[in-house]
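Form 7-S
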Amino acid sequence: MVKKAENIIVGISIGDLNGIGSEVILKTFEDTRMLELCTPVIFGNVKILSFLKKTLNLESNLHGIDKLEQLVFGKINVLNVWREGVNLQFGVNDETVGKYAIKSFTAATQALKDGLVDVLVTAPINKYNIQSEEFHFPGHTDYLNQELEGNALMLMVQDNLRVGLLTDHVPVNEVSKHLTEALIRTKLETVNKALIEDFAITRPKIAVLGLNPHCGDHGVIGKEDDEVIKPALKKLFDEGMMVFGPFSADSFFGSGQYEKYDAVIATYHDQGLIPFKTLSFGKGVNYTAGLDKIRTSPDHGTAYEIAGKGEADFNSFKEAVYLALDVFHNRNEHKELIKNPLKLRQKQL
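Output:
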């Protein structure tokens, strides 16, 4: 395999085969112009993908390979991670199918770690049927956080709207226990670094939402905003980070305040994801910031209710591929800039 410098290798994990993952992957690369930007490698089984392609009346030309050294640029490569057949039932939550989703994902992650693929894009999984004695993680991000270097942070992205979380898959009644100065510092430093290196923003401005209604109304509705969040933000601001807040979450998005900032950090999952998906559903991307490798995914799930019907909208998956490519280019450009302090200074000015 002779790698062209301009052709990025995109590793793709297959996701839940009973969901819409395979459909959105194949639809994305039906447009052959995508192959001018990158070379995909789908970690799965070429016979299964060929069956799904026929079932969905798609025309993608698939190139089956047994090892990554056989990859062909400009083709939709399918790496055979397993050989046996899999019984598929669209829309069904199947533990066996979940195991194959994880086989694909762990193989793709290993290839990412080994530098055999440049970026990773993951199709949706079912967080319930992937659980086993070998895999005890709530989802992709937690596993990647263990396997890769850095501190993972889920950052939802759609154009200039970027929403991150201080806590992610945490029950609402436990959120306040997790909010500490150390956590806030770690998450905001991660976001700030990602905005600079991955999104090419020289002096990023970050807004942080409050935990309680009206940010606690000076302690009347809760003390966490005054006693934990505000002091942590002040220290970071005094150190030079452009971080602001906390802001009352109920009016922040409706008033358009979010447009003034390069990223918005919510204190818990639904506080950030409900407004994000309301504003961007179908085009948003889940980006795992803070790691030494690049991973993106679409902002939707397995969508069992429409699986196998050919109705799935592939735009979010396509945007996930685009974002992975953009971040790859931005990181490389940043590395070049820091090698040349003069260029970096000129950019900052």
